[in-house]
Structure formats: C-alpha cells, structure tokens
C-alpha cells in the first residue's frame, strides 16, 4: 500500500499541463474538485447534466472548455467522473453512444464518486476491452475541505495506474492513499461512511439521554471531546451543524444511506455479520423516509429527537422530566 501526503505546496505544483483532462459532474463535490484542477493550471473540459451548473462553472473558470456532448471528451487522456451512483456511471459510460464509445485507447477513467465496488470492477473489465483503464478514487472530507483542496482520496487500481493519476489527485487532495486493486477505493469509502454514520448516531443517543437527565448538550459535548468518547461527529458536526440547527454539512442523508447500503452489501458478500451496521442501516432507512427529500445527513439527529421526544435545541432548554421529579 502506498500513501502520499503532499504539502499544500506540493498540491499546487503537481498539475498535468501536458495532458488534456475532462470532468463529468459539477455538483457539490465535482465543482470544487474541478476548480482545484483549474487552479493548478490543468487544461480542462467539463460537463454537467444541469446546464446552469456548467454555465456557472465556466463563468468562474474561463480557461476551462465546456462540452456539449460526450464526444467532446474524445481527446482527453484522463476523464474524471464525479457522479452520484453506479447506475448513473454505468449509463454515462457504458450505454449506446456512452463515454466509452469515444475514449481513445490508452486513456484513463477516474471515478471519484461513491460507487459499488463490484460494479466498478465490472466497469474496469468492460473498459479494458477498449484498452481504457479505470481507477476508483472516491473522496472524504466534505464540501468545505473540497474547496480547500484538503480532501482524503482513497484509490483503487494497479500501482502504475495509481501513479499515473497521482499528480492530478494531488491538486485536490491533501492525503492520497492507494488502498489496493480496482474497487478497493470504493469499498473503503463505503466502509468509512458506515463508521462515520455510526459515530453520528451513537453521539446523538448519548446527547439525548444526557439532555433528558438535564445536562446541557453543549456541556456534555465538551466532556466527550475532552474524553475517550470523541469522534469526528462530536468534534466537528455537532456544534457547527446540529446544535446550531443549520443542518448544512453538504452531504445528503440519501447519499449516506446509499453508502451504508454499499457497505452492508459488501459485508454480506464477504460473509461478515455486522450487527451494529445492520441496526444502523434500518435506522437510517427509516430516517430518510421520514425526512424531507434532499435533507442533510446531519438531520438524522433531528429525526432521532422526534423519535425520542427529546430536543437538543438550546432554545428549548428548560426543566426536564428528571429535574421536575426532583423538585
């Protein structure tokens, strides 16, 4: 396994000016990733199914070229996909007149979205028949870190394929980890997100119990973050997005449910029983069905508040049933 941890200077000094690169998908994560490529001096062709998203990006990045059809990527040596799921990746790449129809032999597809590992492996096999390489390179860190070119990037693919795209990935990631063979990056991303979601929910349960007892959630959060129970959610998400009631972390509950599902399917395929993961999957599915479409993943805590009848909202602080019983 190879690990690259370039400094901020390294990140900006490693573009691929001699290669033509394309980016498909300019959403919440695709736009900052493409921005980082352009900022590093990388010639770029971009496309998004939403014309407005494409127009906004081109207006902000006049050196980039807009693609009207997939054949506009024919001259690209590397095409980066930042698409929501494997269904969309398959439709864009493998359908009749899909991207694979136009890519020239020797080019590379880099899937930076969250896809199903087995389908990424199947995509790589299909692409190999046209002498096109597939590398999976999903990211972690969220929208804020994406704009700061501070993403963690987990890469699946043969070592020489990984090394061929590493300079490009360095322009958007502060830590790039070669996980293993094709599909390994997507597997690692799904497993990481299942663990992240578990930490978020576990912290919610602890804070809700503490609140019912009468402990201010902010104070209990301070205790947790000074102690052994802390996790990424308690250290970053609760104060900024949950106790503040903004719920604006930039990653939807629906997408998190998808990633949890990928991880659970992987566990089943590998014959590993995951009791906590199974419980998490059921809870998250119920939460998504209850929340509004497009809800941020941090709103799962709001669902748990409604489920338990306990609020973490500081504005709702008052005498709890426990306190009332002692007066």
From TrEMBL:
A GO MF label: NADP binding
Tree of life domain: Bacteria
Catalytic residue positions: 189
Gene3D superfamilies according to UniProt: N-(1-d-carboxylethyl)-l-norvaline Dehydrogenase, domain 2, NAD(P)-binding Rossmann-like Domain
InterPro entries, alphabetized: 6-PGluconate_DH-like_C_sf, 6PGD_dom2, 6PGDH_NADP-bd, HIBADH-like_NADP-bd, HIBADH-related, NAD(P)-bd_dom_sf
6-phosphogluconate dehydrogenase NADP-binding domain mapped to chain residues: 20-180
3-hydroxyisobutyrate dehydrogenase-like NAD-binding domain ranges (all copies): 183-304
This protein's UniProt keywords: NAD, Oxidoreductase
Protein family according to the UniProt entry: Belongs to the HIBADH-related family.
Protein's UniProt name: 3-hydroxyisobutyrate dehydrogenase
Organism (species): Rhodococcus opacus
């Amino acid at each position: 396994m190879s690990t690259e941890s370039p400094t901020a200077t390294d990140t900006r000094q490693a573009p691929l000016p001699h290669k033509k690169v394309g980016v498909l998908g300019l959403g919440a994560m695709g736009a900052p990733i493409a921005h980082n490529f352009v900022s590093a001096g990388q010639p770029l062709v971009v496309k998004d199914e939403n014309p407005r998203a494409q127009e906004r990006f081109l207006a902000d990045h006049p050196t980039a070229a807009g693609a009207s059809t997939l054949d506009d990527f024919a001259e690209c040596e590397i095409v980066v996909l930042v698409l929501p799921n494997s269904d969309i990746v398959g439709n864009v790449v493998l359908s009749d007149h899909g991207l694979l129809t136009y890519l020239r032999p020797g080019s590379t597809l880099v899937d930076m979205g969250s896809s199903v590992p087995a389908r990424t492996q199947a995509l790589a096999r299909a692409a190999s028949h046209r002498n096109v390489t597939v590398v999976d390179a999903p990211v972690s860190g969220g929208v804020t870190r994406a704009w700061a070119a501070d993403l963690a990037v987990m890469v699946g693919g043969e070592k020489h394929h990984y090394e061929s795209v590493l300079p490009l990935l360095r322009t958007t990631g502060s830590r790039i980890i070669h996980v293993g063979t094709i599909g390994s990056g997507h597997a690692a991303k799904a497993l990481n997100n299942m663990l992240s979601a578990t930490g978020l929910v576990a912290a919610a349960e602890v804070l809700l119990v503490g609140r019912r007892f009468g402990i201010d959630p902010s104070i209990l959060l301070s205790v947790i973050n000074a102690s052994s129970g802390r996790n990424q959610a308690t250290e970053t998400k609760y104060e900024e997005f949950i106790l503040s009631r903004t719920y604006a972390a930039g990653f939807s509950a629906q997408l998190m449910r998808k990633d949890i599902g990928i991880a659970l399917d992987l566990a089943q395929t590998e014959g590993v029983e995951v009791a906590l993961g199974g419980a998490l999957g059921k809870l998250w599915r119920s939460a998504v069905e209850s929340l509004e479409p497009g809800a941020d993943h941090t709103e799962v805590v709001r669902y748990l508040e409604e489920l338990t009848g306990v609020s973490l909202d500081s504005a709702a602080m008052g005498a709890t049933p426990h306190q009332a019983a002692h007066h």
